[in-house]
Amino acid sequence: MSDALLTLEGVHTHIGAYHILHGVDFVVPRGQLTLLLGRNGAGKTTTLRTVMGLWRASAGRITFDGRDITRLDTQKIASLDVAYVPENMGIFADLTVKENMLLAARGARTAAHMDRQRLQWIFHLFPAVEKFWNHPAGKLSGGQKQMLAVARAIVEPRQLLIVDEPSKGLAPAIINNMIDAFQQLKASGVTILLVEQNINFAKRLGDTVAVMDNGAVAHTGTMRALAEDEALQRSLLGLAI
């Protein structure tokens, strides 16, 4: 297994009076795609938000590329080349696709200053981004908004891309396009952490997997091993894939 880019050790998170994460432990190997699976309410989204500093861990340690980021604020974590695509995508509906992309390109003041070679690579991954470049983002379909959200996250080079349920509500053809894009991103050297409910999506993409239950990690291993063990699937997820 590759060395760990991201490590969570005994991470607890409280939100108000609620104790959501109960000692979460797992690693995200460098250069791989790690899936965070589990039933609804298991703590997956809370884990992602805690990694990003949107919610502060009340105990435990989060390490990124050898650095303790447990107490860093979100802006500082993002500056370490970590990008996060939330479940609601965070698209600015009244801005154009171009303006959404420009907001994420920290080194560019205008679209003309954006890295043209990188943009062409993104357009190859997500043709809809180029097609609707000057259209209001709010007019895009759900699948096109998801493509824009991921494209915006990678408009600058990233070490780690964190995405919450990228296939949710998407048509099968769009899901296939998204799978291809994530495969190409991984091949380019980007480490990816995904929360996903679509098990076929997970099965086709995942290298390693952490399965959560009741705010803790109940299983870690390879996606291939989980996909081949129906008894383990039923035990952890309540279904067979």
UniProtKB/TrEMBL annotation:
Molecular function GO terms recorded: ATP binding; ATP hydrolysis activity; branched-chain amino acid transmembrane transporter activity
Key word Cell membrane present: yes
Positions in coiled-coil regions: none
Start and end residues of each ABC transporter domain: 6-239
InterPro entries linked: AAA+_ATPase, ABC_transporter-like_ATP-bd, ABC_transporter-like_CS, BCAA_Transport_ATP-bd_LivF, P-loop_NTPase
Pfam families per UniProt: ABC_tran (PF00005)
CDD domains: ABC_TM1139_LivF_branched
Keywords: Amino-acid transport, ATP-binding, Cell membrane, Membrane, Nucleotide-binding, Transport
UniProt record similarity statement: Belongs to the ABC transporter superfamily.
Domain of life of the source: Bacteria
GO aspect biological process, one term: L-amino acid transport
Gene3D superfamilies per the UniProt record, alphabetical: P-loop containing nucleotide triphosphate hydrolases (3.40.50.300)
Listed name of the protein: ABC transporter ATP-binding protein
Lineage of source species: Bacteria, Pseudomonadati, Pseudomonadota, Betaproteobacteria, Burkholderiales
Protein species of origin: Ramlibacter lithotrophicus
